[in-house]
Amino acid sequence: MPFLGGFLSTALDSPLRQGCSCPPPMLELIAETELQALAALQGATNADDLERWRTAWLGMNGRLKDLMQQLKGVPKDVKPEVGKRLNALKSTLESAWETRKQAVPAEEVTGIDLTEPGLPMGEGRRHILSRTIDEILDVFGQMGFAVADGPEIEDEWHNFTALNIPEGHPARDATDNFYMGDQGGVKRLLRTQTSTVQIRAMESTPPPLKVVAVGRVYRPDTHDATHFSMFHQVEGLCVDRDLSMRDLKAAVLHFAHAYFGEDAEVRMRPSFFPFTEPSAEVDMKMRIREQWQWVEIGGCGMVDPNVLSAVDIDPTQWRGFAFGLGVERIAMRRYGISDIRWLFENDARFLRQF
Question: Does residue 175 sit within a domain?
Fold first, then answer.
């Protein structure tokens, strides 16, 4: 290594070893650092070695940087001389590194064989909930339902008042809703149901109408295997003359059998909702933790006359039915998923199964 021989042979005769007014320990430390650095550089035989040497000696956290930090403790009368010697060391090491870099053979670059088959890339796929929503809309589309949409941030009129939920009703309680404060004197909240979309649909479209809407809804529920604070609902609404519970039941059962198969077990239980009369719960048999259980997937009923009147539809001339079903629970039944929380954890190992 001839180029290093010059550096090493003259190191003891360099200005760093010549007499000066700086403290002997600092002088010796600077000179020893030069000898050690040049000796280490002599052992660098490839590009990786050179980079490691540069990081260790000239890098931001290298040995030279440490010496520079020690300059703060040098007496003021000799600090200029010590600084000069440190700058000389820096120049020496940088020059030696550049020289050594020219002497070390460059890394051989292997050519790219364009005829070699590439690595297979894994195919992406839609989230199971997105796929379920598309499948649900496809079934209802075949049943003649048009798609409607509405905002997730609603006002109290659309979320409560127009749905026959009066002031002071327990459903308006702050513990059961995500309120977002007042905007322009109107109290806003995250919608608790997609029934708000049926109000907007009836406001904008005169009967007869037949619409279905899918979207996120929000309720401060405790998370467990079948409940989550944010989930998706599919809302169906039909307004026409001479509709009855028979039409509603036929629509719900037709969807269940078209989507899950003719052997799907569905039942309707009498219930109460402020915006429908009469009302019913819709249950479906699901496999939860290795056991088949009846699980509520939504509610339904005949649209209450007060709801029709709220949107200027004459309840003596028109009747309607509505239903709201939980998309997550439909996906759980369709794909044998026993815990709703898995749908929102974004664990790729789980999602790759579907």
Answer: yes
